[in-house]
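dumping this here so i dont lose it
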């Protein structure tokens, strides 16, 4: 209701104000924002201003977009108490399938549709295998990770796929900017917005979190657990497919090595952003911020002339720290 002065917020009690801000920005999101700002400040000083160069910031944002797009699907899965270790392999397979379709002369829109359908099909296969065989998704996706990556190697003959025209809209947008913002970042924000709405404002999102919180109680309340798990895995495959298409658009060739190790960064992004590994809650905004933090750390290590492999070490350490801090915060609450 609007007050006489027209300010809809003025009629709300202090408790309602606090609840609104809590919904907009959780403790975990505040934590990752503070960490992100702190790391950026340190790198700005330590790297002698090189970190703040626009070209470098664009590169960081673009790298974060691949992790961030897939983190949206991972947040949904983790909030259900599920996980997908094959996301990097799905990205690779979609990358190769789309590139091969373009090489064979298939129109760009249809090639993209084939790529996205491949990602969704991979996710569907993961979900159906877990449900039908009654195998935990972590085991299923550990196996399909090798299957999908192997298929990408077979299709590409273990060589980059790039002998196709690069003058269409896909490559113009993929390597370009819109109003000064990399296209991949805008795609990440769009996917994030959709994911945020699904998780926080739809029955599917509420029930997914209910499954992660207490699967037995969710089953007794009539929620079809198997159906929700399959759909969630398919969504994960689809967003991994989107990331795969964007990688192709930026690199302008399909590579069978693209996406290796991405599962670690995607899971880390979601966990750092406040999504519990045990399920029951998740934050899409936190997942995207976590992806940005990981990209900043990896970029900073390169600028400071550390080996790029230290990024894997730091990411693992950050996952452990994030889970430990999250557990401590939950106990305090």
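and the seq i came up w/
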């Amino acid at each position: 209701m609007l007050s006489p002065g027209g300010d809809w917020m003025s009629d709300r009690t202090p408790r309602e104000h606090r609840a609104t801000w809590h919904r907009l920005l959780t403790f975990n999101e505040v934590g990752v924002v503070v960490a992100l700002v702190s790391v950026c400040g340190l790198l700005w000083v330590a790297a002698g201003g090189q970190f703040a160069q626009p070209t470098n910031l664009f590169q960081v944002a673009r790298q974060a977009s691949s992790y961030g797009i897939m983190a949206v699907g991972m947040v949904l899965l983790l909030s259900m108490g599920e996980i997908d270790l094959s996301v990097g392999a799905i990205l690779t397979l979609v990358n190769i399938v789309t590139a091969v379709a373009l090489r064979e002369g298939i129109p760009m829109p249809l090639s993209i549709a084939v790529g996205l359908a491949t990602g969704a099909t991979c996710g569907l296969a993961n979900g159906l295998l877990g449900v039908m065989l009654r195998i935990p998704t972590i085991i299923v996706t550990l196996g399909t990770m090798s299957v999908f990556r192997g298929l990408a190697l077979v299709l590409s003959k273990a060589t980059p796929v790039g002998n196709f025209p690069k003058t269409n809209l896909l490559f113009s947008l993929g390597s370009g900017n819109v109003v000064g913002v990399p296209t991949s970042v805008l795609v990440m924000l769009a996917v994030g917005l959709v994911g945020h709405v699904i998780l926080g404002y739809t029955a599917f999102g509420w029930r997914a979190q209910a499954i992660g919180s207490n699967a037995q109680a969710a089953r007794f309340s009539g929620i079809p657990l198997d159906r929700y798990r399959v759909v969630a895995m398919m969504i994960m495959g689809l967003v991994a497919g989107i990331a795969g298409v964007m990688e192709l658009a930026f690199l302008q060739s399909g590579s069978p090595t693209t996406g290796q190790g991405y599962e670690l960064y995607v899971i880390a992004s979601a966990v750092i952003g406040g999504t519990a590994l045990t399920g029951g809650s998740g934050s899409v905004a936190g997942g995207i911020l976590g992806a940005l933090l990981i990209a900043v750390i990896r970029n900073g290590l390169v600028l400071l002339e550390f080996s790029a492999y230290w990024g894997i070490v730091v990411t693992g350490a950050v996952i452990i720290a994030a889970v430990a801090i999250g557990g401590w915060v939950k106990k305090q609450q």
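Residues 1-12, 20-25 have pLDDT under 50 and may be disordered.
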